[in-house]
Amino acid sequence: MSGEAPWHAHIYYTLADRAEAAALRDRFGADPRVLFTGRMVDEPIGPHPIPQYEIHFLEPARDAVIAAIAAAGLRALIHPLTDDDLADHTTLGHWIGEPVALDIGVLDPPGFNQGVARFGIGEF
Q1: Between 18-29 and 62-72, two packed helices, what is the crossing angle to 10 degrees?
Q2: Three-state secondary structure along 39-88?
Q3: Beta pairing class for 94-96 and 52-58
Q4: Contact 34/54 with Cβ under 8 angstroms?
Q5: Domain residues for 55?
Q6: Which one of 35, 46, 87, 116 is at 20 to 30 Å from 108 when CA atoms are compared?
Q7: Could you give the number of structural domains in the chain?
Q8: Which of 97, 99, 117 is nearest to 108 (CA)?
Q9: Looking at the domain assignment, is residue 123 inside a domain?
Q10: 3-state secondary structure of 28
Q11: Residue 42: which CATH number?
């Protein structure tokens, strides 16, 4: 990871704004600063209780990612990947739009984060 911090964004959508979410996903997929663009997941998965998809990127792309999500009018959770999955999704996370109540009971315990091993190569 070349010493740069890994980041995720979970972009949430409803059926009403799925087309906007898909268009943003396509733009992220063509952006070389975005290392991975996940599939659109139309049902709850992991701690996420509503439809979402994720992208992976390095810290230098963070401001551009935030700006693109905000311009699309979607809500999202942007967070770093540290060794504390709970903190990543809560105290270290940054919300764009109205926060979603996450199921934090399914997150990895402090000191372990499965997302680090999967950064840039797969979704969860």
Answers
A1: 150
A2: CCECCCECCECCCEEEEEEEHHHHHHHHHHHHHHCCEEEEEECCCEHHHH
A3: unpaired
A4: no
A5: 6-118
A6: 35
A7: 1
A8: 117
A9: no
A10: helix
A11: 3.30.70.1240
